[in-house]
Amino acid sequence: MDVRQLIYFTEVARQQSFTKAAASLHVTQPTLSKVVKLLETELNTTLIDRSQRKSVLTDAGALVYERALKIIQMVNEVHLVLEDLEDLKKGHIKLGMPPLIGILFFPEMMKAFQKIYPEITITLDEVGANVVKERVFDGDLDGGFVMLPAHEEDYDLLPFTTEQVQLIVHQDHPLAVKENVSMLDLKNEKMLLFSDDFTIHDRIIEECEKAGFIPDVAFISSQWDFISQMVEHNLGVALFPESIAAKANADIIKTIPVYPVIPWEISFITKKGRYCSHAMKKFIEFIKDNYSKTE
Asked: Which residues form the domain of 270?
């Protein structure tokens, strides 16, 4: 058994597909299947049920998957420790960040950070907050920016910024005359939501249910500007963080405060107990000194 076998196996488990896992790992599907089959032979057990449309873990596979993630993380941490010993001024960081946060903060943040640490490189994974949390937990990312909530038993949280969620509507929409709106006002509206890998997707649905209704979702997208354009054509209403709402076309779109207030709380997360490289420590210090909202 070697680490490569475990990496291949865990990727199949994560993707629930040999085809998708092969594409993610940049190997051929026959090669991937052969490596996973060899692992099953060495362990003398079936790890993946191939009889269904999705490749799902067997009971034995679930046990091996849990331990394989820990082994892979330990091996990665050994590499990080050695890299730190070789050169404390250099390093590489893998970060996750939802596009909503990226367009607001990332360019300015990276310019300032790399001015101080020009030899620390950063790879950015632009995905929704729910995916960022998953990849940080699995060890695929060193850290990430997410909308809360995030399980504090799993992550160390560094508060980053807080805004309010606001409603955007077409200027001719009946709600456009209001100074503020309640969630109940949206009961009969066609709603445009971010995709479900964004935490704000879950939060909006939760707030609608608190108000006593299931939202009538007309369209789902991962692109804020596409949703904004849909509102410009009066095809529905949307809820945006205030900084994103401010980017909407003010000649056509009206932005309205919502009550009760829905906070858009952003924190930088790292996995509890994971080794923190020298480069990562410097990045966290930079966030604390320049952006963190802690007292």
From this structure: 88-159+266-290
β-strands 263-271, 216-221 pairing: unpaired
Q: 228: which strand partners?
A: none
Q: Based on the fold, state whether residues 203 and 133 are members of the same structural domain.
A: no
β-bridge partners, 143: 95
The runs of H, that is alpha helices, within the chain are 3-15, 18-25, 29-43, 59-86, 99-116, 129-138, 199-210, 224-232, 242-245, 278-290
Residue 10 three-state SS: helix
Whether residue 103 has pLDDT greater than 90: no
CATH code: domain of residue 141: 3.40.190.10
pLDDT at position 110: 92
Give dist(CA 203, CA 198) in Å, integer.
9
d(CA 223, CA 193): 10
pLDDT digits (tens, 9 = 90+) for 238-247: 999 999 999 9
Is the omega angle on the peptide bond into residue 174 within 30 degrees of 0, that is, cis? no
> Judging by beta carbons within 10 Å of its beta carbon (0-12, 13-18, 19+), is residue 164 exposed, middle or buried?
middle
User: pTM for this one?
Assistant: 0.67
For residues 115 and 77, the model is more confident at 115
| First-to-final CA distance of the chain | 49
Quote the CA–CA distance of 203 and 209 in Å, as a whole number.
10
